[in-house]
Design a protein that fits this description.
single chain, 6-stranded mixed beta sheet, 6 strands, transferase, GNAT family N-acetyltransferase, acyltransferase activity, transferring groups other than amino-acyl groups
Length: 141
């Protein structure tokens, strides 16, 4: 007998069961993703990480999951430098595309300055804003 259990505190092993099952299904369906983490870090003078990009490459795409620039470095083109570094590594890994999403208007403009174009919008996420999904073509090396 099956049971559906809703929780806000899943264990690592419970999340692994979902992840491993979906990974196996997708690999059988479309081939292995060759997913690899990718991070571009901003470090301070003491070597501490104070911002950067966290994402991954898979199926020929770079996905930027998180991008954070400390307030003291904003307005200096840092987001563009981070994206350029991530895109260069993704291209070296053979990626042909990149995608990112945001609901922040300033981030949206920064991504568009870097050549990203909107391919989708989710209105009212969060309420009163839209979440935009953007993509960019890369040249694999």
């Amino acid at each position: 007998m099956m049971k559906i259990d809703v929780t806000d505190a899943p264990s690592e092993s419970e999340l692994a069961a979902i992840s491993e099952g979906l990974t196996a299904f997708n690999a059988a369906d479309v081939g292995p993703s060759e997913r690899r983490p990718l991070a571009v870090l901003i470090r301070d003078d003491a070597g501490r990480t104070i911002g950067g990009i966290s994402g991954y490459t898979a199926w020929g795409w770079l996905f930027t999951q998180w991008l954070f620039v400390p307030e003291s470095l904003r307005g200096q083109g840092m987001a563009g430098k981070l994206l350029e570094a991530a895109e260069a590594e993704a291209s070296a890994r053979g990626c042909f595309g990149a995608w990112i999403d945001t609901f922040n208007p300033q981030a949206l403009k920064a991504y568009q300055r870097q050549g990203y174009t909107i391919f989708g919008e989710l209105p009212d996420f969060p309420a009163g804003r839209s979440r935009f999904f953007l993509k960019k073509t890369l040249s694999p090396r």
